[in-house]
UniProtKB/TrEMBL annotation:
<dbReference type="InterPro" id="IPR001206">
    <property type="entry name" value="Diacylglycerol_kinase_cat_dom"/>
</dbReference>
<dbReference type="InterPro" id="IPR045540">
    <property type="entry name" value="YegS/DAGK_C"/>
</dbReference>
<dbReference type="InterPro" id="IPR017438">
    <property type="entry name" value="ATP-NAD_kinase_N"/>
</dbReference>
<keyword id="KW-0808">Transferase</keyword>
<keyword id="KW-0444">Lipid biosynthesis</keyword>
<keyword id="KW-0594">Phospholipid biosynthesis</keyword>
<keyword id="KW-0443">Lipid metabolism</keyword>
<dbReference type="GO" id="GO:0008654">
    <property type="term" value="P:phospholipid biosynthetic process"/>
</dbReference>
<protein>
    <submittedName>
        <fullName>Diacylglycerol kinase</fullName>
    </submittedName>
</protein>
<dbReference type="InterPro" id="IPR016064">
    <property type="entry name" value="NAD/diacylglycerol_kinase_sf"/>
</dbReference>
<dbReference type="GO" id="GO:0005524">
    <property type="term" value="F:ATP binding"/>
</dbReference>
<dbReference type="Pfam" id="PF00781">
    <property type="entry name" value="DAGK_cat"/>
</dbReference>
<comment type="similarity">
    <text>Belongs to the diacylglycerol/lipid kinase family.</text>
</comment>
<dbReference type="GO" id="GO:0004143">
    <property type="term" value="F:ATP-dependent diacylglycerol kinase activity"/>
</dbReference>
<dbReference type="Pfam" id="PF19279">
    <property type="entry name" value="YegS_C"/>
</dbReference>
<dbReference type="GO" id="GO:0005886">
    <property type="term" value="C:plasma membrane"/>
</dbReference>
<feature type="domain" description="DAGKc">
    <location>
        <begin position="1"/>
        <end position="126"/>
    </location>
</feature>
Length: 285
């Protein structure tokens, strides 16, 4: 029996970039499968049963929805990045050019080449990149509301806007049973290194080691944050004395009134416990 795959296209992604190349991508994928179904979303409740592979043409938000389906069913996931951030693709070494990524997916389908990567899990939700709370989550929420500028600059504008109002707050972190009480500006729990369209918040995170890398920015002034933020693109923020790192299989975050997001998707706030699930997601390629 041949390979049955689905291509989920999010046409609004990348200011219409996904829609413009969807036909070309579908034609390339057909060279590697026996049956290809075209879908308008990767939401788990809209996907057919019995797929041998799910391929997503879109950004990190679209991939986040696909991860929920693939983690639950064991279906291999192919990623063709066409969004603003593309942070999961970047973290997994997938080509950021969508047509090159499509060719890589076709090769993986033909050769049945898969690899297992870790996922984070909390309160019934899977995440593949970074769970964050505090300043960075507030920046993400603001960036999502902005209509200008596009691309990574949107996050830069959101950073400047949030600097005016944000303050460090008391946080309790429990990592594999060890409790840490501190004042913090942000906490980022990384399965992969990147968020915010290429910011290396957890630069040493490895999605195949069964552990989270956790970056904590402690009590930081506005001047501190202005010095820390430019280094995020290259991982140099770890040199700042306000920044500390931890590693753990499980982390509980207790903070009052902080926004929370995972894979760039906003989640209900409050105390949360995230666990690293080793090899929970199968990636094509």
């Amino acid at each position: 029996m041949g390979i049955r795959a689905a291509l989920a296209v999010h046409p609004e992604t990348g200011r219409g970039a996904a829609a413009r190349i969807a036909g070309t991508v579908a034609a390339r994928l057909r060279a590697g499968v026996d049956r290809l179904e075209l879908l308008g979303t990767a939401a788990p409740d809209s996907l057919p049963d019995g797929l041998d592979a799910l391929v997503v043409l879109g950004g990190d938000g679209a991939v986040h929805h696909a991860v929920q389906y693939c983690a639950a069913t064991g279906t291999p996931l192919g990623i063709i990045p066409a969004g603003t951030g593309n942070d999961l693709a970047r973290g997994l070494g997938i080509p950021l050019d969508p047509l090159r990524a499509a060719d890589a997916v076709v090769t993986a389908l033909r050769e049945r080449r898969h690899r297992a990567v870790d996922l984070g899990h909390l309160d019934g939700t899977w995440f593949a990149t970074v769970l964050c709370t505090g300043f960075d989550a507030a920046v993400n929420a603001r960036a999502a509301r902005l209509r200008w500028p596009s691309g990574p600059r949107r996050y830069d504008v959101a950073v400047l806007a949030e600097l005016a109002a944000f303050r460090a707050r008391p946080v309790t972190l429990t990592t594999d049973g060890a409790r840490h009480h501190l004042d913090a500006t942000l906490v980022a729990v990384g399965n992969t290194p990147y968020y915010g369209a290429g910011m290396r918040i957890c630069p040493h995170a490895d999605p195949a080691d069964g552990l989270f890398d956790i970056t904590v920015v402690g009590h930081a002034t506005r001047a501190d944050l202005l010095r820390i933020m430019p280094g995020l693109r290259h991982g140099r923020h770890l040199r700042h004395p306000a920044v500390r790192t931890l590693r753990a299989r499980e982390v509980r975050i207790e903070a009052t009134g902080w926004p929370l997001c995972a894979d760039g998707e906003m989640l209900p706030g409050g105390a949360v416990t995230a666990r690293c699930a080793r090899g929970a997601l199968t990636i094509l390629g």
